[in-house]
Amino acid sequence: MPVDHEFGGQHTELKLSIIEKYLRAFSSALQNKFSQLWYIDAFAGTGKRTVKVEARGEDLFDAEVPESVEQRRGSAQIAIDIRPPFHRLIFIESKQRYCNALRPPIVASGILRYSNPIG
User: Fold this and answer.
1) Which is it for the CA torsion 22, 28, 31, 34, positive or negative?
2) Which InterPro entries match (predicted)?
């Protein structure tokens, strides 16, 4: 059963966009300078988040858009997707159900080790 992780607003969109740009630049610039690059996320969550997109009425240029719910990447999934990849990703999350939801994208990414000290 999917775990909804609903949070944030426009500031979250901006923050995650900045994080992604920074991580891309960081991993590219430093990949040959250090033997390993690590990423640590102390509030990893599920790797994605649920966002409610408000309905928008019809206007002169656009048709009406009904309210919808979208799944968007969170910081953990963004870090998993970064290329060149980090050598080690450390995700810290206190909620067991969020840890369980984060496991499939970690496994799908080809990251060889996964550990959850909580359970």
Assistant:
1) negative
2) Tcm_partner
